[in-house]
Amino acid sequence: MAKKRLGIFGGTFDPPHVGHLILAAEARDQLGLDCTIWVLTPNPPHKQGKEISSIEDRLAMVELAIQDDEDFSLSYVDIDRPGPHYSVDTVSILKQQYPDQELFYLMGGDSLQDLPHWYRVSEFLNILDGIGAMRRPGDEIDQTALFNQLPQLEDKLNFVTAPLLEISAEQIRRRASTGHAYRYYLLPRIYRYISEKMIYQS
Ligand code: ATP
């Protein structure tokens, strides 16, 4: 029997937006994922010094993002352990929790471009069965250079094709805090949550 395929989608999700949902849904479709767990990172090492919304608000928003989709679930793997939350440790714990499944890590093109700088990246790649990457406007992916730096990546990298989405959480936070339109970059219930709780008002 073929092994089940589990997607792992790590992020800050401040807030989760339609770019995240499209990436997760296209990856499921194109890579044949059975389930995808969304891993909320409390304090990402690469975002130190940046202001991040509370873990409670981000948890509530990820729950709102995935609640209609039975193939998506929220993982507390990084919330339940002390930081720093490096992805290599996250996937190693998930491998122990799901020893019989193939693990596919999902990311945008900006993260892929940065991958050679990730902490203990070889170990991270060795644990995984695949990477699902969706291009992002402005990313600069040089596949040859990436494969030279990370030889294990060549057999594991799968591009998830989708229209380029110029949507980022940072842009949504900025628009919300400066009174510009941001509503339709989000699911309606997440827009409601943000506007009622005035999460991004300075
Ligand atoms: P911020 O703008 O605050 O840095 P973000 O929008 O990049 O946030 P994250 O939670 O940091 O969101 O992203 C989680 C993952 O989703 C990352 O791998 C990121 O590359 C990917 N991602 C986010 N937005 C998009 C998008 N529009 N297209 C493709 N991938 C995306």
Can you offer a commentary on this structure?
With 202 residues, this protein is of the alpha/beta class. It has one domain: 3-Layer(aba) Sandwich (Rossmann fold). It has helices spanning 18-31, 55-66, 87-97, 109-114, 121-127, 143-149, 169-177, 188-197; strands at 5-11, 35-40, 72-75, 102-108, 130-134, 157-160. Helix 3 (87-97) runs parallel beside helix 5 (121-127). The relative contact order is 0.19. It binds adenosine-5'-triphosphate. Adenosine-5'-triphosphate (ATP) binds at residues 11-14, 19-20, 23, 107-108, 110-111, 134, 136, 165, 167-170.
In the residues, how many domains can be counted? 1
Separation, N- and C-terminal Cα atoms: 54 Å
- CATH domain fold name: Rossmann fold
**Strand order, biggest sheet?**
3-2-1-4-5-6
Annotated CATH architecture: 3-Layer(aba) Sandwich
Q: Give the SSE order as H and E letters.
A: EHEHEHEHHEHEHH
Low-confidence stretches: none
Report strand %. Answer: 15-25%
- Ligand catalogue: adenosine-5'-triphosphate
Shape: globular
Could you estimate the helical fraction of the residues in percent? 25-40%
